[in-house]
């Protein structure tokens, strides 16, 4: 039971972390406009948040175990709100994740034009 509770909270916190990273990624260009290195700033924000996940999993799992209703069959996970994940996150890996799709398309066109000139 404890394992399922911990996995449930780990899954939720991981999805939250990925949403946070997506938000950081979407706004990282503002850091470049402020003359900061986008990749360094991304790591400066992302790494500390990642390290907080374990402690949050442990504390949320302890809270769930403390408040869960214990029946003759064991802990009632459904009543505690513990369920299996319904979806997963998928990311497309790109050469430069800080470029927009339009910028990447322009780079490809420029590369093709350079090849034709040669």
Number of strands: 2
The parts where pLDDT drops under 50 for at least 5 residues are none
Number of domains: 1
Instruction: Tell me the fraction of residues in β-strands, as a range.
Output: under 5%
Order of helices and strands: HHHEEH
Radius of gyration: 22 Å
Number of helices: 4
Termini gap = 66 Å
Which sheet architecture does the biggest sheet show? 2 strands, antiparallel
Overall residue-averaged pLDDT value: 81
- The rough form would be described as elongated
Class by SSE composition: mainly alpha
Q: In which range does the helix fraction lie?
A: 55-70%
What is the subunit organization of this protein? single chain
Kindly report the spatial arrangement of strands forming the biggest sheet: 1-2
């Amino acid at each position: 039971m404890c394992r399922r509770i911990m996995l449930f909270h780990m899954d939720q916190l991981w999805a939250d972390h990925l949403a946070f990273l997506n938000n950081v990624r979407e706004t990282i260009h503002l850091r470049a406009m402020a003359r900061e290195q986008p990749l360094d700033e991304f790591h400066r924000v992302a790494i500390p948040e990642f390290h907080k996940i374990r402690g949050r999993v442990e504390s949320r799992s302890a809270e769930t175990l403390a408040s869960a209703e214990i029946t003759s069959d064991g802990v009632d996970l459904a009543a505690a709100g513990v369920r299996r994940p319904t979806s997963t996150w998928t990311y497309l890996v790109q050469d430069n994740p800080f470029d927009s799709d339009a910028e990447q398309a322009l780079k490809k066109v420029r590369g093709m034009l350079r090849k034709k000139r040669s």
